[in-house]
Amino acid sequence: MLTLVICPGIHDRLLTEQFVEGLRLGEMPGLKVVTFPASGIGAVSSADISQFLWRQVGDPWRSSELLFISFSAGVVGAIGAAWAWQGFGGKVKAFIAIDGWGVPLVGFFPIHRVSHDYFTHWSSALLGSGSDSFYADPGVEHLTLWRSPQTVFGWQQTGGSQKIRTTAAEFIATAIARYHSPSSS
Q1: pTM, 2 dp
Q2: What structural domains does the chain harbor?
Q3: What is the DSSP annotation of the chain?
């Protein structure tokens, strides 16, 4: 079974609920979703996220594979937690960073970036471009990308100069589907 780990940033929890609804995660059979209850600066704590995962998912070497989706300040804590999970013998299928501007993203797992505008997309790629990525065009407010990904249109870049017009929600759902096989759950 694939466990989707949602690591929000520092914002109202209602925005995260709206994000989950916008992605329609309840319609993906065999997918377990756990949301880190970020509170203030806790969003950046890899240790807090790791402890949460041990309680919610179990021992890394015996539990399901994880796919992280993180936002803003939550990207800082989530990338460290993903490294720790893998370091303790767990499997990280992929990592999706949403507006993790300024956070170096490297790991022994596929990384996907989602940005609220082209500048953030371009400048974040300097610290690790990842597999494929998405940027909003026209650009949107930072919190809009998290609250309503289904309303944010832009471009998916799959490598080189190839671009595909889509929404942030479709890009994220496609990435999840790539790593999730309901028949193997």
Answers
A1: 0.93
A2: 2-184 (3.40.50.1820)
A3: -EEEEEE--SS-HHHHHHHHHHHTGGGSTTEEEEE----GGGGG-HHHHHHHHHHHT--TTTS-EEEEEEETHHHHHHHHHHHHHHHTT--EEEEEEES-TT-----SS-EEEEESSHHHHHHHGGG---SSEEEESS---HHHHHH-GGG-EEEEE-STT-EEEEEHHHHHHHHHHHH--GGG-
Q: What is the pLDDT of residues 70-125, one digit of tens each?
A: 999 999 999 999 999 999 999 999 999 999 888 888 889 999 999 999 998 888 77
Residue recorded with tokens 């400048």: 123
